[in-house]
Amino acid sequence: MMKQFGYNSLKSRTIDYKNINTTLISYIIKNEPSFSSCISCGSCTATCSAANLTFFNIRRLNIQIRLGEFENIRQEIDKCMLCGKCLLVCPRGINTRNVIMLIKKGLVTFNLVE
Amino acid sequence: MIDVLIIGGGIAGIETACSLQELGLETLVLEKEKQIGGHLNNWDTLFPTKRSASEILEYYAEQIRKKSITIYLNTTVTSIRKQDDGSFEVHTSREVSFKSKTVVMAHGFSLFNAQRKEEYGYKIYENVITSADLEQTFKQNNDVFVNPMGKIPERVAFIHCVGSRDEKSGNHYCSKVCCITAVKQAIKVKQLSPQTQVFCFYMDLRLYGRGFEEMYREAQEKWGVQFIRGRLSEVAENIDGSLQLKAEDTLAARPFKMSVDMLVLMVGFEANKSTALFHNSCGVACSESRFIQPRHHHLSANATNIDGLFTAGTSIAPLSVFDTLNHAKAAAFAIHSYITK
Amino acid sequence: MNDLFIIAPFTIGLIILLGILIGKYVVWTIQLSQIDKLRILHGFFTVRTFRAIREIFWESLLHRNIWKTNPLLGYMHMSFALGWLLLIIVGHIEAYVQASSLSVPPWIPIFFRYFEHEHFYGARFFAHTMDVLLLYILSGVVLAYGKRINSKLFGIKRTTKLKPKDRISLIALWSIFPLRLFAESATAVLHGNGGFLTSGIVFRYLQVTPNIEYTLWVLYSCSLAIFFITLPFTRYMHIPTEVFYIFLKEYGIKLKKQFNSYSKIQVYSCSRCGICIDACQMHHAQISNNQSVYILKNIRDENLTDRKLYNCLLCGRCEDACPVNINLNDLRISQRIKSSKEYNSSYDFLEYSITEKADVVYFAGCMTHLTPGIKKSILTVLDTAGVNYLFLDKDKGACCGRPLMQAGQIEAAKKLIAYNRQQILESGAHTLLVSCPICYKVFRDDYELGQINIRHHSEYFLELLHNQKITIRNTQKSIVYHDPCELGRGCKVYEQPRELLQSIGTLKKVKHEKVESLCCSGSLGDLSLSMVERNKIKEQTLEVLLKPNPDILATSCPLCKKTFVKGVDIQVKDIAELVAENIQSN
Question: So what's the pLDDT on residue A3?
Answer without folding.
Answer: 47
